Amino acid sequence: MRFVVEGTRGAGTDGRLESVRSAARGFSLVELVVTVVLAGIIFLAMVPLFVSGLKTTSTNTRRVVATNIAQAQLDKVRVLGATPSSYANITNANLNSSTWNPNLISTTYTPPAGGQPYNISTSVSPDASTAPYKTVTVTVSRPNDSFQTKVSTVVQNPIPVSTSSTSGPSAGNGPFPITAAFKNSAEVSSKGVYVVQIAYNSATPTPMPTATVTISPTLHPAASPTNSTVTWPSLPGGMSYMYIVYCYSNDWNSGNTALYTPTTHLLGNDWVKFDTNPGGS
Asked: What per-residue confidence (pLDDT) applies to 120?
């Protein structure tokens, strides 16, 4: 009986030793090979994604560079548009020449890090030196790139363009009539109604009065009917003249002070109306 017990104890010890040996042994060669193969397949499948990402990043970088080149070229063209003499140089021939003004206008750009240069072409429309404005388009391209970058701007001729305008039914300078109407023409005093014309010198930056003229004759409306009017039929208009219409009333300050309209430029047929008894009936 003692022999059996000792034999069982020995067998248990050998089992535990065998278990420890199995745990220390690790992966078998077959397991390692399978793991390596699977990892290789996964990495191989991801390679196109990495390549595509790198290409996209590179393309976007070149697009940004091309846009900056085009904007820089337009800035140089705007410098030319600052004065009339340089504005005339904004032509297709000059902006696409590598020798016309190489310190200002470029036809190529080579990155500092090397690589293929960018080509710069510029179009101007219209090409005439005296055009009131020009549309300038800069195109930047690069060999082996499938895209082109285009940027446009409009440059205005700095030479002042003469313009003219008219106002009124026919010509801006008239002649035009001024008609004065009255709430009650019977209240107009014997001093009557008259127009003062103020002539201005329009050649100065701030026009100054050069003459003040009372338009002759002084008119008197008919006492009846009370809605009668008076008219000055042919007066010069435009911004070089201003007019004030004066009217004396029997009921306004005993007829010693004239009522008058605000100053106005005569840009068309004018109509003014007087209340010869303000605050009265």
From this structure: 92
The CATH number that applies at residue 196 is 2.60.40
| Cis peptide preceding 236, ω within 30 of 0 | no
164-181: burial string, b at 16+ Cβ within 10 Å, e else: eeebbeeeebbebebebe
| Structural domain of 144 | 60-156
Give the model's pLDDT for residue 178.
87
Contact 174, 237 (CB under 8 A): yes
Look at residue 239 and give its three-state secondary structure: coil
Last residue of a domain, one of 127, 156, 185: 156
Integer Cα distance of 105 and 78 in angstroms = 11
Amino acid at 222: A
Q: 3-class DSSP state for residue 235?
A: strand
Whether 118 and 66 map to the same domain: the answer is yes
Mean pLDDT of 89-93: 91
Pairing status of strand 208-219 against strand 149-156: unpaired
User: Starting from the edge strand earliest in sequence, which strands make up the sheet with 176-182, in order?
Assistant: 229-235, 176-182, 270-274
Residue showing tokens 């010890």: 13
**Sign of the dihedral through C-alpha 45, 46, 50, 55:** positive
Three-class SS string for 147-201? CCEEEEEEEECCCCCCCCCCCCCCCCCCCEEEEEEECCHHHEEEEEEEEEEEEEE
Q: According to the model, what pLDDT value does residue 138 have?
A: 93
The CA-based dihedral angle spanning residues 229, 234, 236, 239, taken in that order and rounded to the nearest 10 degrees:
30
pLDDT top residue among 40 and 73? 73
Helix (H) or strand (E) holding 234: strand 229-235
What's the CA dihedral at 216, 218, 222, 228 to 10 degrees? Answer: 70
Buried b (16+ CB within 10 A) or exposed e, 210-227: eeeeeeeeebbbeeeeee
